[in-house]
Amino acid sequence: MVTCTLDNGTVISIINPLTPNAFTAPELASQATIAAYLIVVSLTIIIWDILHNLQDEYKLLFKEKIRLPTIVYFMSRIGSLAYATVNIVFLSVPVDNCAQLELVGLVLYVITTSTTALLFYLHVCAVYNNHYFVRIIFALTWLGVVRGSITIIEGVTGTHLGPTQFCLNIIAHEYIVASAIAGLVNDTTMFAAITYKFGKANSASQAKNGPSTGITRFFSGDALPAFSKAMLQNSQVYYL
Questions:
Q1: Whole-number Å distance between alpha carbons of 99 and 118
Q2: On the CB side of 50, how many CA atoms lie within 13 Å of its CA?
Q3: Where is the signal peptide (predicted)?
Q4: Which of 78, 96, 105, 194 could form a disulfide with 86 if both were Cys (CB 3.0 to 4.6 A apart)?
């Protein structure tokens, strides 16, 4: 058993100093463990999704003309995979420089968040046939996502966990909440716009069945053409 002084000045006795989480408060150790599990689950889902859609993505990359949406899509996919991988390393592997590794992860976070939100922006623009007003309004909300995600780089850093080589996140500034707020506002407004557009068309198609039926099926898209219904449902999945 050894004694150790925490960052807040508290002196504690450590039964097993070889355990990295022994150098943090119990609640922080629990949060770090849960975060590591969630990242592993996320990476597993990403890898499964890539393998599941590998054939379609191969065709998209090598059989179709490369356009902006294709580039953004693959940047989002690669960014998500790299971000999850870096986070697993950060939370579970001893490293020499936690701050640099955290910076790499945060840059990947900005890339992933921005490109994924850009895909949704391209989606809503397509739904409204690139209407000028729609493009301007949602370009501003997308830029808010980009700026909000950049606050993460400025507001979070990494440090070693006690005397070990394992890493721990340190929140330096509370304004990083802007990232979550900007993302929520952007996704909610875009989803509402897409739902309104398709819901209005769906209600019109259901008018012969009476207003109540149209309202009931406003979000289902049952009366829409297959492609439009797929776009509506894809937006619902993204938002959830």
A1: 28
A2: 15
A3: none
A4: 105
Q: Show the CA angle centred on residue 173, arms to residues 168 and 174, nearest 5°.
A: 105
Environment class of 166 (CB within 10 Å of its CB; exposed 0-12, middle 13-18, buried 19+) = buried
Return the closest-CA partner of residue 72 out of 138, 24, 116, 130: 116
Amino acid at 115: T
Per residue in 91-121, pLDDT tens? 888 888 989 999 999 999 999 999 999 998 9
Q: Can you tell me the distance from the alpha carbon of 65 to that of 117, in angstroms, rounded to the nearest whole number?
A: 22
Q: In 3D, which of 102, 178, 171, 172 has the Cα closest to residue 145?
A: 178
Give dist(CA 117, CA 76) in Å, integer: 9
Residue 17 CA to residue 108 CA, distance in Å, equals 33
d(CA 79, CA 70): 14
User: Backbone phi, then psi, for 18, in 5-degree steps?
Assistant: -80, -10
The Cα 85–Cα 42 span in angstroms is: 10
Range 81-107 burial, b when 16+ CB lie within 10 A, else e: bbbbbbbbbbbeeebeebeebbeebbb
5 vs 93, residue with greater confidence: 93
